[in-house]
Amino acid sequence: MRRFKRISLWRAGAPLALMCAGLLFATSATNARGTDLRPSRNTTLAGLVEEQSRRSASLVKQHAALTHDIEALQAQQGSIDPKLAKQFEDLSEQVGTRPVSGPGLTVTLRDAPPEVVKDNPDVDENWLVIHQQDIQAVVNALWAGGAEAMTIQNQRVISTTGVKCVGNSVVLHGVPYLPPYKISAIGDRRKLQKALDDSQYIQNLQDYVVKFQLGYDVKNESTLQLPAYEGTLDLQTATVPGFPHTPSASPSVTGR
Fold first, then answer.
1. For tag attachment on the chain, is the N or C end more exposed, with fewer CB atoms within 10 Å?
2. At what angle do helices 132-144 and 189-198 cross, to 10 degrees?
């Protein structure tokens, strides 16, 4: 009698279990919409950064092409006064919207090697990676040494350029980059090198270079080809909801 009851309960419960399983499969298929619920692509931060960098680089190229077309159309409207044309050319070099070339230095910054991280599990991880302050220190020292033009990760540095850390990547002009970080500057190489050597912040960084093998390399360059800045020159300001907003203005050119 007991055996008969158990068989009856199983027969009654089996269809219910199968129906629930079917509902789960149908729900998963609907949510996935034909895609993998656990996609293997772009699951690492490095992959996401590289994908965003490629997308941003493509948009920058499109912007540059459109800007070139606009300038060509403006030139067709009539001849420009030679004095104004010369002034425009000079200002373009100062602002950074024209490519330049010349001798200079390239500074490369790298995080500590993986084996150093493994061999020092008790060390603060912040000591083993390059931060935005390190990049800014190099940039400031090179400007102080008389740099005429500069790039970070082959992006032209202008007066509104900002370097910002996001996780273990650095964002420059809206594009994320992973180390190594390369800063190139055109100018008198001896003065640039002396400015780097005299920087107190970089001297402190050298202690971590020796102790934790952070990468800090300086290379003399006989000729550097620095690209023009191809982004927008408009300044964007934050606004508070409910308060009047003042339109942003283009930056004026001043002496460095």
1. N
2. 130
Say if residues 170 and 177 touch (Cβ distance below 8 Å). yes
Torsion of CA 207, 211, 214, 220, to 10 degrees: 60
pTM: 0.61
Q: Determine how β-strand 100-110 pairs with β-strand 181-186.
A: antiparallel
pLDDT in tens, 91-116: 545 556 789 999 999 999 999 998 98
Dihedral sign from CA coordinates of 235, 155, 108, 148? negative
φ, ψ for residue 166, nearest 5 deg: -135, 105
Residue listed under structure tokens 């102080």? 144
State both tokens at 241.
């909801």
DSSP state of 90: H
Q: Which of 82, 91, 137, 131 is nearest to 111 (CA)?
A: 131
CA separation for the pair 250, 256 (Å, rounded): 17
Are 203 and 170 a contacting pair, CB within 8 Å? no
The pLDDT of residue 18 is above 80: no
